[in-house]
Amino acid sequence: MSDKTAGLKDVAAAAGVSVTTVSRLLNGSLALPDETRKRIEDAIRKLNYRPNPHARRLSRGRSDAIGLVVPDIANPFFATLVAAVEEEADRSGLAVSLFATLNRSDREVAYLELIERKHVDGLIFVTNHADDGQLARLINKAEKVVVVDEDVPHAAVPKLFCDNEQGGHLAGSHLARHGHRDVLFVGSDETMISGRRRFDGLRRALGEHWRQEIVPASYRGAYTIEFGRAAGRRFIAEGMPATAIFATSDEIAIGMMEVFRAEGVSIPGDVSMVGFDDVAPFHLFATPVTAVRQPVRAIGRRALRLLLETNWQEPPAAAARELVPVEIVERESVAPPAKR
Q1: I need a labelling partner for 52 at 20 to 30 A (CA). Which of 61, 145, 278, 336 fits?
Q2: What's the average model confidence in pLDDT over 194-216?
Q3: 296, 81 in Cβ contact below 8 A?
Q4: Beta strands in 75-144 (DSSP E)
Q5: pLDDT tens digits, 234-269
């Protein structure tokens, strides 16, 4: 042989078999007599043949790549989720193709079409806005999709969420035990199922503690620092109408705290606060922030396993939903209501 790289034809010629026979042996679709298999294996070793992984994947109709669709890779929550999926995929010998949608529906639609074009073997799909029905239709058509973090109603595929209602209940119980009845909920609008469940958990906890129906006041918007800043300014402009705040994402909490610091509002001296996610380094803040912690890495790892373990030959008739427990991490941002 010359210095050129040996190919499949060279192996077949040396072993005295067809190229198809060698190819099918390598991709595991053909059982051969021991003597024939040995001739091929000897030829592979002698010629130092290295299979082309891309060609082998194409021959099997697979890419050995998993797609991961997230709204924003700059967000620490999603960055942590991506890292966990990558680590789990690496343990399974899979590649991950990452797609950031900028939380835009048109980009989500384009990435869902990747499965039909066989660019990936399946998708872990994360959206951060409400669905008008289009996403559910495309997900059901694609089938090999696991929905994570925010629900897509009517999508009949496996779904994996943190227990948002439990998280709201933990926050509400913690604040109520410290004497807070007037709690401001700052989170997504009611079209976002995660926000709705966090609000329901908060309301239930306050009602249980105070033994009466309590409907917390709420500011509704996006899970962003910008919305947090706007909420902080509104809270001050309205005369600080609550003794405690449940900020339902790290970004919202950070935005509100920026405004409070600039305006001289003390946490917890003037108002108590509980956050949600706990991916941000809240323990390093001037006032360490109590927060409901999502196990983001566990969610990422489980999402990949769920995609691989689902029997896609018999897809579920209805969405199978898994809830991952959350916990509250108590720090120093909650105190009894300030006297005014």
Answers
A1: 145
A2: 97
A3: yes
A4: 95-100, 122-125
A5: 999 999 999 999 999 999 999 999 999 999 999 999
